[in-house]
Design a protein that fits this description.
The structure holds two protein chains of two kinds. Chain A is an all-alpha fold. In chain A, 52% of the residues lie in helices and 0% in strands. Chain A has helices at residues 3-11, 16-23, 40-47, 54-57, 63-76, 84-97. Helices cover 11% and strands 29% of the residues of chain B. Chain B is mainly β. In chain B, helix 1 crosses helix 2 (19-27). The chains are: A mainly alpha, B mainly beta. Chains A and B meet through helix 1 and helix 2 of A and helix 1, helix 2, helix 3 and strand 1 of B.
């Protein structure tokens, strides 16, 4: 969790890192909480047209399950179909970083 | 910027020094060349999530303008300490130790949104339609509800069907709730039963269908984010409310203001928020998230990870027996004698016994258990525990309900990650 946590602290007026961020911007990923790796840009912008990337980062799915989820979004949830090249990039990214072993699962603090 | 003294700068001071830099640091916002609007969606989404709704005129919103709603300096206006799972749609749960109150305060009640909340929520003009298989269709304002029907206040449990999903292995899709998608607030409203009786329930009604005013994430006005219902027999019970007050005040905007259903003990999705219409049908309702595998579990026990055919899924009705330890907080340091307390509930049933263990389930200690304040409320319990010596312990809680059902240790795995009612476990360190 990056942006949301720092926002929370910022709004409480208690966050030193904010002061640092002001003098040295660009610490915050422009891809929100998603792991920065090959394919993150395509994935991020494909997702956030409708929903936050925060729901993406919580999942742990096989490539096949990610594929089925995209099909469901297109068939039933009004998502514009991705071109095959982008779709492959997105599925590669998601199944590498958000698979069932949950290498990047955002931990609960309780 | 240079703070005037050694205290940390406030949000306003931070903005005063360099509005553009502050905008980017706080919200991830970058503006168009005209210094208005949001160049990319991320900053706008963050700001919208923190405000709790969309900003229709975002394109003209000046760079560096702090939304006036942030005067209170809270992440989700009117909520305290909730863990944000998702900011669009907004989903946030309450850490267990913040659910310690016997009745859940409004600022500690979890949020589960499927779509985007409506922007027009004026309680003076809000109207509820009751139609479908009724003798007389009704359109009622909130004032009509208060005037024409008995107004009641009840403490009622709302729990998300997916509460506890984060513990599923293999993981299940959806918001990864830990234990905090549950609350028991005081809800004031009128009985759904009374309103349906006035409209006149026709023969052949099987199910209710609930429609809210929230909008679909895709922006498609033809799509509803969620529309679920309950069997008519459930709708005609005494503890299903059409609620217009929460804990004696207005409903929180993210908890369905100005009007919602409260169907205690059933998946929270039955308790339609921003309620606009109750439609009586002669078939099981087939709105969004009623069909497929939504809010459904297999009709038999399945192995973790097993593929289950769609036809073998059944709609979830009552939620299972469950308990929560709200004191002490997980990983707290406690004395050799410590008070342990929390809540227990079971959909459409009462809790008959509440036990805790401090030795990994080898032996159990009965807790003092209060009766529910009314049907549909959770039950509060407490027990003083003596730990034999310093060290690491886990406190486990286990409720048993009026049908003899007891919380299990292990998850009854299902593909969509519903109904995790395993014992609650809290770590304590005894000094």
């Amino acid at each position: 969790m990056t942006s949301v946590v720092s926002c929370r602290a910022a709004l409480a007026g208690l966050c030193l890192s904010l002061v640092f961020a002001a003098s040295a911007p660009a610490e915050e990923s422009e891809f929100g909480v998603l792991v920065v790796a090959e394919g993150v840009e395509e994935t991020y912008y494909s997702c956030i047209a409708c929903h936050s990337e925060m729901i993406v980062a919580q999942q742990g799915l096989t490539r096949q399950a990610w594929d089925e989820l995209l099909v469901w979004m297109v068939d039933e949830q009004g998502m514009p179909e991705l071109d095959p090249e982008t779709e492959a990039i997105v599925l590669d990214y998601l199944s590498a970083h958000y698979n069932v072993d949950r290498p990047n699962f955002p931990q609960a603090d309780n | 910027m240079a703070p005037r003294d050694d205290r940390l700068p406030t949000l306003s001071e931070f903005y005063a020094a360099d509005p553009a830099a502050a905008d980017e640091a706080v919200f991830g916002r970058r503006s168009h060349g005209d210094r208005r609007g949001f160049l990319k969606g991320a900053g706008l989404a963050t700001m919208g999530a923190m405000l709790g709704m969309a900003i229709p005129f975002h394109r003209t919103m000046p760079q560096g303008l702090i939304p006036a709603a942030f005067a209170s300096d809270k992440v989700i206006e009117g909520k305290d300490g909730l863990r944000l799972l998702n900011d669009r749609p907004l989903n946030a749960e309450t850490p267990a130790h913040l659910l310690d109150d016997p009745i859940t305060p409004t600022d500690r009640h979890f949020i589960r949104n499927n779509g985007l909340p409506p922007e027009e929520v004026d309680p003076k003009t809000w109207a509820l339609t009751v139609d479908g298989l009724v003798e007389t269709p009704l359109t009622l304002t909130i004032d009509d509800l208060k005037k024409d029907f008995e107004v009641v206040t009840m403490a009622l449990v709302i729990e998300c069907g997916g509460n506890g999903r984060s513990a599923f292995n293999p993981p299940a899709k959806g918001n990864q709730w830990s234990t905090g998608a549950v609350g028991c607030s005081n809800w004031t409203g009128v009985r759904l039963k009374d309103v349906l009786t006035k409209a006149g329930v026709k023969d052949g009604v099987v199910y209710t269908a609930h429609v809210g005013a929230d909008t679909h994430l895709s922006g498609d006005p033809e799509k509803m984010p969620i529309s679920r219902g309950v069997p008519i027999e459930k709708a005609m019970t005494d503890d299903v409310l059409i609620a217009f007050e929460m804990n004696g005040g207005p409903l929180h905007p993210m908890n369905g203001a100005p009007l919602r259903l409260v169907v205690p003990g059933w998946p929270g999705s039955c308790s339609q928020k921003w309620l606009k219409r109750v439609w009586l049908r002669d078939q099981v309702h087939d709105g969004p998230k009623m069909t497929g595998t939504s809010y459904r579990v297999p009709n038999r026990p399945v192995a973790p990870g097993e593929e289950v055919a769609k036809k073998d899924f059944e709609i979830i009705e009552r939620m299972p027996v469950k308990s929560l330890i709200t004191t002490p907080e997980n990983d707290a340091q406690v004395d050799k004698t410590a008070l342990v307390r929390g809540h227990a509930w079971s959909g459409d049933r009462t809790i008959e016994a509440m036990d805790i263990s401090i030795d990994f389930g080898a032996t159990w200690i009965p807790a003092e258990l209060d009766p529910p304040v009314n049907e549909g409320a959770w039950q509060n319990w407490r027990v003083n525990v003596s730990f034999p010596k310093a060290g690491y312990y886990e406190v486990w809680s286990r409720a048993t309900d009026s049908a003899g059902a007891m919380q299990p240790f292990a998850i009854d795995w299902n593909p969509k990650g519903y109904l995790n009612n395993t014992m609650h476990r809290v770590a304590v360190r005894v000094a």
